[in-house]
Amino acid sequence: MDFIKDSFHSQAESSGQTKKAKEQRAQQAVEKELLLSKIKKEVKIKNLRVHEYFLDFDTLRKGFCAKNKFRGVLSQLKSPILCRIELSLEEYDFLERLYQNEEDPSKANWFQFSKDINLVFAEDVHLPKF
Fold first, then answer.
1. Which pTM does this prediction carry?
2. In sequence order, which ranges of the chain are alpha helices (DSSP H)?
3. Which residues are CB-neighbours of 46 under 8 A, at least 6 positions away?
4. Which residue from 5, 98, 118, 121 has the fewest beta carbons nearer than 10 Å?
5. Could you tell me the CA-to-CA distances from 33 to 49, 97, 129 in Å, in that order?
6. Higher-confidence residue: 85 or 7?
């Protein structure tokens, strides 16, 4: 009968872990939307095309750049001339993790980031095809 108890406890633990993982994903989705809406607001006001700032760092036009370049472009956007987007270190880290390339963790998917930000515009921006 011990194996039944063990099986029951294992199922209870895994369902608790699954519930916790779902809550974390939901929380991450909320944080993502809040952060992106903060960026989108400024991008919309200044009518910026974010993808143009990334093109210099993606010479092969693959849609990916080094994480430090990704952060560099984001920090450029906080200049008073451009956008005034103020991000905390935690927000930079969160964006880097969110748009991390699955095949190469040292790179960020700037193309997807640009697509997500450009959703703020009514019409789709014609980004280059990758």
1. 0.74
2. 2-46, 51-54, 67-76, 89-98, 110-118
3. 82, 83
4. 5
5. 19, 15, 25
6. 85
